[in-house]
Each structure stands twice: as C-alpha cells, then as structure tokens.
Amino acid sequence: MRERIGSSKFGQWVSEHSFLRFVVTRFLLIIPTLFILVSVVFFIMRLTGDPITATMGGKLPQTQIDKLIHDAGYDRPIFVQYFEYLGQLFSGDLGKSVKLNMPVTELILTYGTATVELAVLALIVAFAVGIPLGKLAAKYRDKWQDVTVRLFSIFCYAMPVFFLGLLLKLIFTVQLGLLPSSGRVSSNLQSQLSNVDFPTGFYVIDSLQTGDPEVIGDVFAHAILPAVALGLLTAATFIRLIRTNLISTLSTDYIFAARTRGVSEKRILNKHAFKPALIPIITVMGMQIALMLAGAVLTETTFEWKGLGYQLSELLKARDFMAVQGIVIFIAIVVSVANFIVDVLAAYIDPRVRYGK
User: Fold this and answer.
1) What is the DSSP string of 268-328?
2) Based on the structure, what is the number of domains in the chain?
3) Is residue 193 situated within a structural domain?
4) What is the DSSP string of 302-313?
5) Using CB atoms within 10 A of its CB, is residue 194 exposed (0-12), middle (13-18) or buried (19+)?
6) Considering the domain boundaries, does residue 281 fall inside one?
7) Which of 98, 172, 189, 300 is most buried, most CB within 10 Å of its CB?
8) Which residues make Cβ contacts (< 8 Å) with residue 263, sequence separation at least 6?
9) pTM
10) At 261, which CATH number?
11) What is the pLDDT of residues 42-83, one digit of tens each?
12) Is there a domain that residue 337 lies in?
C-alpha cells in the first residue's frame, strides 16, 4: 500500500514538473527567436540605404542631408549601430520614426489598436464561417455539399487576400453600393469617436460608447469587407481541419457505441464528435494569428485601414529603419506570445505534446 501511495505521488510530481518544465522551455525559446529576428531585420534594412536620404533626398541640399545622417549616426560602422540599437532595445527605447517624426512606441500605441481590432474581427469571421462549413462537409462526406464546401475552402486559401479585397470592393461597393470601400469610419463621424469618456482606439468599442446608431452602423459597415477578406483565409484552414478531424472522430468506437444506444446524429455530431475535433484548431491557432498579422499588411493597404500594416507598407517605402524595426518587433512579440499560449494550452489538454509525441 505504501509503495502504491509513493508511486502515485511520484507520478503526480513527475507529471506536474514535466508540464512546468515544458512551459519554462517554451517561454525561454521566445528570447532567441526575437533576437534572431531583430538581427536579421536590422541588417536587411541597413543594406537598403539610410532613411534620411530616402525621405529628404531632392528636398534639401546634400550638405544638410549629410549633416542629418551624421547626427543620426547612420554614417558609423554598421556593427557599432547594431550594438547601440540592442542597447536601446534593452532600455525600452524603440527609437523615433523619421517619416512620421514621432517615437516608435507612440506609433505602435496609436495604430496598433486598429490592427488588433481587424485581427479580432477577422478571427470572428473565420470561426463563424469555418466551423459550420467544416461540420457540414463532415456530415455530408463525399456528397455535393462536401464537394462545394471543399471547393470554397480551396478558393479562399488560394486567393491572395489583396485580390479578394479588391473583388469584394468591386461587388459590394462599386456594383451594389452597399458598403464603404476604405477607412475605419466616415470623416464626418470621426469626431464623435474621440469625444467618448474613455476612448480605447478600438472603433467598435468606442462607437458602442457613443450610443449613436449612425456611428455604430458606420463603424461596422467599414469593418465588414476587410474583416471578411482577411477572415476567409483563416476560415479555409478551419474548414479543412474540422472536416478531417470530425470524419476521423465519427469513425471511432465510442461514436459507434453512441449510435447503437440510439443517440441522434445531430447530438453525436455537435456534442460527442465536435469537441475532440477542436483540439487541432487550438494547436494551429498561433500560426493562424501570424498569418493574420501578415495578411493585415495587404488588407489594410487595400482598404486604407490605418493600422500598423498600412503604416508598415508606407514606412518600408521610406526606408524608415527605426519605425520598421519597432513594428516588426511588436508583431514578433505578439506572435511569439500567442504561440506560447497556444503551446501551453495544447500541452495542458493533451499531455503527449509536452513529450513531443
């Protein structure tokens, strides 16, 4: 009896500490990932030239441009600039944007909310479209419903997000005149969002605070097309994952036992088979967040959605080193933390993950 108790306690201790060890290991992996990314972006940006010449070239005499370059330190050896930049990062200083003439931290706080809002809305679209269609395809496996859904998922996955955005604008803005083609809110309603008691920068939340149906409707109308364009890309992945895992789950012994007990197909699909099929979606959620943030650059540019993606495309044209590096670091941190959370959830739900099985 004592041996069994001791063995049980030891097994519990090993299980708890293996999970803790897994969490700590995954968290520590964020540090070298960010370091490598910062280094790669730094050297690539330096190879394209300096931002002062790109921004001020042709507007100022060369002597003044040379002075600005010297004052900014862009004429010093590249490794000197590199180690100075790392020192700034460790002190929490992301530098200053040459093009926008504002600290990069302020730039991220100003425009980051727009990108996060778009990503959340797109994720809602992905779930709203991907889950029902994935269940439908699995329920009617190899029938015309399944074939139609699979063709739709292939279309969404293969279609470039900017082209899909242009197609949606052509249909719903130009042809039907139902939805606005660009921006986050109409210019005549912009002031009402900034006059709320606690402006968050998330226009959906701020519009609800106004209580004005016109403002709320206008904000949601502007958000529909970009959210759909970006969300359908992720919805395609959800459709395939849910379909594949539901079909696999529906062929297991416990589903067969449920059928023999007379449980309805609807209950089997929605209760017994659907929950296990969601586990793979959790494991790929971090990757989908990364894809959404990458797709946000093209989506925001297509719809002139003034977020970090839109600003990043403009800053890249101007070769604004500090701003581009700061935005990339911010996005990398968001993606790394999201992947870390997803890995921990997956390991908690399925203990085999922490052992690499």
Assistant:
1) IIIIIIHHHHHHHHHHHHHHHHHHHHHHHHHHHHHHT--SHHHHHHHHHHTT-HHHHHHHH
2) 1
3) yes
4) HHT--SHHHHHH
5) exposed
6) yes
7) 300
8) 272
9) 0.76
10) 1.10.3720.10
11) 887 777 666 677 666 666 677 777 787 777 777 778 788 888
12) no
